[in-house]
Design a protein that fits this description.
With 176 residues, this protein is of the alpha/beta class. The chain has helices spanning 19-28, 45-58, 71-77, 90-99, 104-114, 138-157, and strands at residues 8-13, 35-38, 63-66, 85-88, 122-127, 160-165, 168-173. It has a 7-stranded mixed β-sheet with strand order 3-2-4-5-1-6-7, with helices on both faces. Helix 3 packs parallel to helix 5 (104-114) and helix 5 packs parallel to helix 6. The chain is globular, with a radius of gyration of 15 Å.
């Protein structure tokens, strides 16, 4: 049985909480060919291994676009195709934006602006990084601030918000 996804779903959780696997299962239950938009960049051997593990788990059924910065453009370009989209992950995207010295607030607004124009459901995966102490580093504080603002804004517009812990999905917001 296929469960119809709402237009926008946000899946949050800590590292290794089961976010990506949960999001993949949501997408695979949809008709059409799924699209995986990967924001990660293989900067070292360990990250390359993580990326390879994710690719192997998804298999050949998925189309994959690797895009570290231009999420809004990728979503618009793929809007009219059939199948749901998984964005994995927003916190890596945010990190990429900061590293590229792009304005995270402007990029967030651009991303949010394209969501109403999409003709296929999208599931966003993101790390909840604001549950710990405030870090000493100014860059780390800036990152946590932008991640929190992004999650709040997406949480407002998403019809479904899920928090993952220990591989368990806890709905924070469900479609009416």
């Amino acid at each position: 049985m296929t469960t119809v996804l709402p237009p926008v779903t946000l899946v949050l959780g800590g590292a290794r909480s089961g976010k990506s696997r949960y999001g993949e299962r949501l997408i695979e239950a949809q008709p059409g060919r799924p699209l995986y938009v990967a924001t990660a960049q293989a900067g070292d051997a360990e990250m390359a291994a993580r990326i390879a593990h994710h690719r192997a788990r998804r298999g050949a059924r998925w189309d994959t676009v690797e895009e570290p910065l231009e999420l809004a453009a990728v979503l618009l370009a793929a809007s009219d195709e059939e199948g749901a989209v998984l964005i994995d992950c927003l916190t890596l995207w945010l990190s990429n934006l900061l590293h590229a010295r792009r304005d995270p607030a402007a990029e967030m607004e651009a991303l949010l602006a394209v969501l109403p124009a999409l003709n296929r459901p999208v599931v966003f995966i993101s790390n909840e990084v604001g549950l710990g102490i405030v870090p000493e580093s100014a860059l780390a504080r800036e990152f946590i601030d932008h991640a929190g603002w992004l999650h709040q804004r997406l949480g407002e517009v998403a019809q479904s918000v899920i928090f993952m812990a220990a591989g368990l999905a806890m709905p924070l917001k469900s479609p009416q």
